[in-house]
Write a structure and sequence with these properties.
The protein has about 290 residues and is an alpha/beta fold. It is about 40% helix and about 20% strand. The strands form 2 sheets. Strands 1, 2, 5, 6, 7, 8, 9, 10, 11, 12 and 13 form an 11-stranded mixed beta sheet that branches. It has a two-stranded antiparallel ribbon with strand order 3-4. α2 links the parallel β1 (about 25-30) and β2. α3 (about 65-75) packs across α4 (about 90-115) and α6 packs parallel to α8 (about 245-255). The longest helix has 25 residues, at about 90-115.
């Protein structure tokens, strides 16, 4: 159905107060999931990020690269292995993770943004000691290999890029401070820690689900707003389960660390970032301490 010129104008007017509110503010977007493997969704995410940048928001992209890593490991005849949802990372796998994330994926994202008229720079956690980490030890009896636990974020290199109206694109490899190694970092965790260190206004996690659903089998039961104090009850009842638990925990940690609003949104929906950030309806679940006037 064709959209009238009046309807187009209404869309712009609806976005205006959000643009005014968030212009000049830092927004951290964790990019991954289906949006990384579908060309249509990839293009939509890049266009969303460019538009947010053009209207004055300071956008930081933190990305994973699971599918690309799996493909490269398969090419060298190495099986991907996961322990409690985290990629087991031996030295050979770490070499692949670092080359794929910091090289191939990161530079492809930077090149795409620049071709579309933006100005992006690629960074990883090694640059400027952005992410410093120690070997992850959950005291649960499992060995995760070279998976890291971030102990310090030094955001100066990102802040410098933002001061020059540049879009930082950050891959999640960290500098080991307990061993002479790089560490593989979960992208959701890295995005949350970076958002806190930057004093970001928003943290947005792109996922492969609508958000948190009251009924996991019914996407119409999306829970639009969750308070941090409600999270444990949702976990205990089974409404939040599986891979959604660490995502929610990252959002709660970010809110506790001063990020005003966090969002878990559906990366399968084209332009879901704009829908969530610039419309009244939104496109996912928002986790925040309190509404602002």
């Amino acid at each position: 159905m064709a959209i009238s010129e009046l309807d187009r104008a209404k869309v712009i007017i609806e976005a205006l107060p959000y643009i005014q509110k968030f212009s000049g503010k830092i927004v951290v977007i964790k990019y991954g999931g289906n949006a990384m493997i579908s060309q249509e969704l990839f293009d939509a995410v890049m266009e969303d990020i460019l538009l947010l940048n053009l209207v004055g928001m300071k956008v930081v992209i933190v990305h994973g690269g699971g599918p690309e890593i799996n493909t490269m490991l398969k090419k060298i005849g190495k099986e991907s292995r996961f322990v409690n949802g985290l990629r087991y990372t031996d030295e050979e796998t770490m070499d692949v993770v670092q080359s794929v994330l910091c090289g191939k994926v990161n530079k492809e994202l930077v090149a795409t943004i620049n071709r579309k008229g933006g100005y992006a720079i690629g960074l990883c956690g090694l640059d400027g000691c952005l992410f410093e980490a120690k070997r992850l030890n959950k005291n649960d009896g499992y060995d995760y290999g070279l998976v890291g636990d971030i102990v310090r974020v030094n955001p100066e290199v990102v802040l410098t890029a933002l001061e020059h109206n540049t879009i930082p694109v950050v891959s999640t490899v960290a500098l080991g401070i307990d061993e002479e190694t790089s560490y593989n970092i979960n992208a959701d965790t890295a995005a949350a820690e970076l958002a806190k260190a930057l004093g970001a206004e928003k943290l947005v996690l792109l996922t492969d689900t609508r958000g948190v659903l009251q009924d996991p089998g019914d996407e119409s039961t999306l829970i639009h707003v969750i308070r941090p104090q409600e999270v444990q009850g949702y976990i205990d009842s089974g409404i939040i389960s599986g891979g959604m638990i660490p995502k929610i925990q990252c959002c709660v940690s970010a809110v506790a660390g001063g990020v005003k609003r966090t969002h878990i949104i559906d990366g399968r929906i084209p332009h879901s970032i704009l829908i969530e950030m610039l419309t009244d309806s939104g496109a996912g679940t928002m986790i925040l301490e309190k509404e602002e006037r």
